[in-house]
Design goal:
5 strands, globular, 10 helices, alpha/beta, five-stranded parallel sheet
Length: 196
């Protein structure tokens, strides 16, 4: 079996099932890349993981506001793998392909439901890097699998374990789910800002 999904980024606010998902992917040879708290949880479980800053060569800065907004991440997600120009630019810039993006977003809804939440606290829970990675992966679903719902982890891990990849129809369905997820998220933020 040829492993088509070779590299995955897992960066989640809702950690439910993420470590187990990383373990299943790692077991079949998928390289795991991760950020901050997710990376610590994966590493604590004894699973090999590459810290996103080691991949990008750039630290997480501005209280975590900037960590995945980097060409080595987005180039790896957005590259059209059968476009020779994209492949050449990846090689020239030391960009490795990222085949799976498992991301869920800062808990904006939970934050704004807290009693006496401040506007500043709400704003700090507006995710930027997460939606950017989700949208990039969803746009490039021809080559990249995007997973935004922890309920999908087992099914996706099973597919990769059995076939080395996630089939085209499933990738397309996941991309549609991903765009619905970010649209819902942005809509919630828009309503909150308009009312406050």
């Amino acid at each position: 079996m040829e492993l088509k999904i070779k590299r995955a980024i897992i960066s989640v606010s809702n950690k439910l099932g993420a470590v187990d998902f990383a373990k299943k992917l790692s077991k079949v040879g998928v390289e795991i890349i991760s950020t901050g708290g997710t990376m610590k949880a994966i590493r604590a479980a004894g699973i090999p993981v590459t810290y996103v800053s080691d991949l990008t060569g750039f630290p997480e800065i501005m209280n975590g506001r900037v960590k995945t907004l980097n060409p080595k991440i987005h180039g790896g997600i957005l590259a059209v793998r059968d476009n020779p120009e994209h492949v050449q630019q990846m090689q020239e810039n030391g960009i490795v392909p990222i085949d799976l993006v498992a991301v869920n977003l800062y808990p904006f809804k939970t934050t704004i439901r807290k009693p006496n939440v401040t506007l500043e606290e709400a704003i700090e829970n507006i995710d930027i890097g997460g939606p950017a990675m989700i949208r990039a992966a969803a746009k490039n679903f021809k080559f990249v699998t995007v997973v935004t719902n922890p309920d999908s982890y087992d099914e996706i891990a099973k597919m990769i374990t059995e076939t080395g990849e996630v089939n085209y129809e499933k990738r397309k369905k996941l991309a549609a789910e991903a765009f619905a997820h970010t649209a819902d998220y942005d809509s919630m933020i828009a309503k909150y800002l308009a009312a406050n």
